Amino acid sequence: MSAHVDPENDDRSSTDPGLRRAEDEVVTLASELIRFDTTNTGDPATLSPERPAAEYVAEKLGEVGFETTYVESGDTPGRGNVIARLPGADRQRGGLLVHGHLDVVPADPTEWSVHPFSGAVQDDYLWGRGAVDMKDMVAMTLATARRLGRDGITPPRDIVFAFLADEEAGGLQGAQWLVDHRPELFEGCTEAISEVGGYSVTFGDGVRAYLIQTAEKGIRWLKLRVRARAGHGSMVHEDNAVTQLAQAVAKLGQHRFPIVLNDSVREFLDGVSELTGWSFPEDDLDGAIAKLGNLSRIIGATVRDIANPTMLNAGYKANVIPSVAEASVDCRILPGREEDFDRELAEVLGPDVEREWVGLPPVETRFEGEIVESMSRSLLTEDPAARTLPYMMSGGTDAKSFSRLGMNCFGFAPLRLPADLDFSALFHGVDERVPVDSLRFGTRVLDHFLRTS
Hints:
Layout: H1 12-15, H2 17-35, H3 51-62, E1 68-72, E2 80-86, E3 95-101, E4 121-122, E5 125-127, H4 135-150, E6 159-164, H5 175-181, E7 189-194, E8 199-203, E9 207-216, E10 218-227, E11 231-232, H6 241-253, H7 263-276, H8 285-289, H9 296-300, E12 306-314, E13 320-321, E14 324-333, H10 338-349, E15 354-360, E16 363-364, H11 370-382, E17 387-393, H12 399-402, E18 408-411, H13 423-426, E19 433-435, H14 436-452
Parallel strand pairs: 3-6, 3-7, 7-18, 9-17
Antiparallel strand pairs: 1-2, 2-6, 4-5, 5-19, 8-9, 9-16, 10-14, 10-15, 11-13, 12-14
Helix pairs in contact: 2-4, 2-14, 4-14, 11-14
């Protein structure tokens, strides 16, 4: 069900000059971060390393007294990460990790209304690659950390701030590497927040809720391979690797995995029903989810496993039948469904299709406890009429890495968004942008959360 906490009704920024200063600088910080081209193509030969952005973050933290640790992760020079710890009042209590990634996906300037690395502010929005994924949260975190350091505020418990490389390629050269090689940097942390949650959605007649991410589907990048007999394209040739692979890929692409509702999704649907009166019968769940509008793309992807073919590769000449054909498939797997997914995949593809994969596991935590109450209270202090709901993300974040250290991980990058903004379409999209007012709102919420949780 939704969380409802009696909020404090105060206009804190009007009476707190330190908070006002953080609000005033968050847009500048975000704009300057966007101007660093940290494009992560996944290819060491073509990516733009995070080091300049990481050095910028370290400089900004150093200005207000933080001692920072700079680490280059992985085997490619320049994959910069910055970690800083702010000691809390209760050093025996489990610490909080606040993490964000500095890399972004590629952007083609010819497709954009503004240059994707301009960090332009126009029409009350901040534009640029990373504006929502996730230099907005990085800037809010940096602005809040600077406020805490500048004003000498001691939080209730230790806070570790981490600004990371390589999330957009799965974190192998970033969070995964740090967890494997430098786990002491996160010692004592039992909970973590980062993307993608804490943002508002509006249902029906203006009913607003904030979605706190409590789960992520697992990621599996699958390589399919068929081996057969090579031959001349002019001959009758029944043992054709391309044909066999194409048939298998088409069958998999058209396959619908069964609906399975885990705790996070069921609690989300129950919460929406409570707020709106809408029902979500399992015998027509896809149709019912369509009522969620733009949000239906996200929620619809969290009620079943998904396997989407994305790439095909075979042959080297038009008149040569190749002996090998390959396909890439992006698989997203619900928590607890790994074994069932493997069994079903084998049934769909059959024994003649080779399979190999790399991936990251699903993660899930409960929508309960002191940290959830604190997130809800911090949001509702700024937006008293709203509610908070848990949800599952269909993609993946660095939470998959930090959960290996035993942390309960949440998506909490607070933003109050216009009701008509298709926020999910902006992730990795053309003309990525975030409302300036949303950045200021998020900074106030994050400040309240870090000072009280």
